[in-house]
Amino acid sequence: MTENTRKKRMLDTRMVPAPSHGIIPERDLNSTPVLEARHLGIEFGGLKAVDDFNLIIGKTEIAGLIGPNGAGKTTVFNLLTKVYQPTMGTIMINGRDTAGMNTVQANKLGIARTFQNIRLFDNMTVEDNVRIGLHNQVKYGMFSGIFRLPAYWKQEKQQHEQALELLSLFDMQDMASSRAGSLPYGAQRRLEIVRALATKPCLLLLDEPAAGMNPHETEELMRNIIKIRDRFQIAIMLIEHDMNLVMGICEGICVLNYGRIIAKGTADEIQANPTVIEAYLGKKKEG
Amino acid sequence: MKLKKSTINNIISYGIVIVTFIICQMMISSGSMTRSLKGQMVPICVYIVMAVSLNLVVGISGELSLGHAGFMSVGAFSGIIGAAWLRSVLGVENEILRLVLSMIIGGAFAAIFGVLIGIPVLRLRGDYLAIVTLAFGEIIRNVLNCLYFSLDGNHLRISFNNPNIPGTILVNGPNGAKDVDKIATFPVGFVLILFTLFMVLNLINSRSGRAIMATRDNRIAAEAMGINVTKYKMMAFVTAAALAGMAGALYGLNFSTVAASKFKFDTSILVLVFVVLGGIGNIWGSIIAAALLTVLPELLRAFADYRMLVYAIVLILVMLATNNPFIRSLFDRLIHRRKPATQRGGASE
User: Nearest CA of chain B to the CA of A170: how many Å?
Assistant: First the structure.
């Protein structure tokens, strides 16, 4: 990073989300943030689904994005992964502007995600699902694939080992040859995370990873999220309605309501914030 | 372990095709095959290749294409012209070499058309894509109806809507190609089937094939995983077009006259019927369906006027049978050992 951009960024951190507000921990101040969204917004025919969204996520940070239903949380994810093109603002990934990029290019820059409604490749095996995640790390073309050149055998074997290693993160290597669509719900959610990890992201976006899980499974998921962060040294941002999970593992939390950020901070700060309580529970009646 | 399994399954697949070929050859040489059936051998090979290649688009890449006969006609006419050109200009007299080279020419031209048509068509999704491929298939046929090709010395002459061109006429507009060298043979057709199987099965079990199947299963997730959807849809589309072109060249060189009207919309639908009946995404199903349904009208001659009625009833019965849970479970148990392979090929559920 050049001196100039560092200065600029320091300026922005003071201007936009001040470090004291938690969302960017002190330890990350000296490196480029993984994600930097500035004045991000999108309009759908005059309706501002997301407006003036500012967020910085440092390396190896676990950030939470919460808010009532319809607040625009998933829209933010879709903006970050370029499913939607923002109508306002900029998104920087590892200091690189993503303006004009599409989903594929954003993924190559290091953003991987899971989906709120599971989107696995149902008719393919579990291992093949992970191999799709590894797709861009394997470099043999259609020709060597069809004519089975040495590159094919070497890289297929490598890919097979990598896939099993990733699956072993969640103890799923025994399921490698079963059809992804036939897995139980919890395993499908875990497979989505493995598949996203396989793309070697620097920022992993999890959209309601604990949806439909029981408290025991949620606890295991919390441990796993921290394990992933520590092992791969990546930043994780998650949308979740389970407050135990969010308050338990997120180092910084960002609260969204009607497309706008209404609060940012640590778990304790958010819990004590009157605006947040109002957004979730409504205003206290006067008198 | 896994890799080995899929390779073994592929070897079994090729083995079955080879054994079938040897049986057919023995029947031909021993004279136990009827004359009409013998005449059907090359068309059967052609339709098998057509069905397998269309299955690559419909079953593996998940896009409904209704213009597959268009690529077949491009392959047929470029193959016919190529064969004549090879003979009189380059002086290639060996028939098998000429046939193979013409098939490559046919495949190459069909692939070029595949790219040209794929660029606009693959921007569309679902029904729109089907409609536009249908239209392109018809456009190709109608344009071919107005094209005249002749060989004037060493020059290939092309004219549009003007039959008065010098030299020996090769393709005569709506009347099609006349006095074609009938150089297509059953063994070459069989090799083309093997080549097609080799291409398609190996493609499916490679990095590119997995990407193609991923775009079929879930386009949004595939994009989020960094897969360039258009590139892989294009790859499947163009490969299928090239194979259809090669099949078309074989088909064209099997008859003494070939007109563009042979490659109507009906032909596209016929091939689609093979694919659907054999099971979308199931390569083996396509081969069996194409072979049986090409022979069936021939075998049903005894029913005379009721031929097409019986044909339709057979189609309905096959569909009912393949959807019957009891028969399906029976089949599953029968081919239990081969099950992982069919899954990798994206077997229809």
Answer: 20
List CB contacts (< 8 A) between B281 and chain A: 123
Helices (H) and strands (E) in chain B, counts: 14, 3
- H helix or E strand, kind and range, residue A86: none
Q: Which residues of A touch B218 (CB under 8 A)?
A: 119-122
Question: How close A70 comes to chain B (CA, Å)?
Answer: 21
- Torsion A20-A25-A26-A29 (CA) sign: negative
Report the helix count and the strand count for chain A, using DSSP H and E: 11, 10
Tell me which chain A residues have a C-beta less than 8 angstroms from the C-beta of B208: 141-142, 145
pLDDT of residue A18: 37
In DSSP notation, A242-257 reads -HHHHHHH-SEEEEEE
Strands A203-207 and A111-113: parallel
User: Are A107 and B224 a contacting pair, CB within 8 Å?
Assistant: yes
In whole angstroms, what is the distance from residue A18 CA to residue A52 CA?
Answer: 16
Cα(B3)–Cα(B291) distance, rounded to whole angstroms?
A: 30
Query: A106, A113, A58: which is closest to A233 by C-alpha?
Result: A58
Name which residue leads in pLDDT, A38 or B300. A38
Tokens of residue A102, six digits: 């599409």
Rounded distance between C-alpha atoms, residue A279 and residue B50, angstroms: 61
B289-318 residues touching A, CB cutoff 8 A: none
Each residue of B314-333: b (16+ CB within 10 Å) or e? Answer: ebeeeeeebeeeeeeeeeee
Query: How many cross-chain Cβ pairs, A to B, lie less than 8 Å apart?
Result: 112
If chain B, 349 residues long, is cut into consecutive pieces of 10 residues, what is the mean pLDDT of each piece? 66 88 89 82 94 94 92 94 88 88 96 94 86 92 90 84 82 84 90 94 92 93 93 95 96 91 90 89 88 84 77 83 77 59 40
| Residue type at position B337 | R
| Cα–Cα distance measured from residue A276 to residue B216, given in angstroms and rounded to the nearest whole number | 42
Mutate to test the interface with A, among B201, B208, B225 (most CBs of A within 10 A): B225
CATH 3.40.50.300 residue ranges of chain A are 1-110+201-287
Q: CB count, 10 Å around CB of B30?
A: 8
Q: How far is B324 from chain A (nearest CA, A)?
A: 21
Are A121 and B222 within 8 A, CB to CB? yes
Residue A277 pLDDT > 50 = yes
Considering only CA atoms, which of A85, A64, A83 is closest in space to residue A256? A64
| Rounded-to-integer distance, Cα A163 and Cα A161, Å | 5
Contacts of A120 in chain B (CB under 8 A): 217-218, 221
Provide the CATH topology of domain A1-110+201-287: Rossmann fold (3.40.50)
ipTM of the shown complex: 0.83
Rounded Cα distance between A26 and A28, Å, is 5
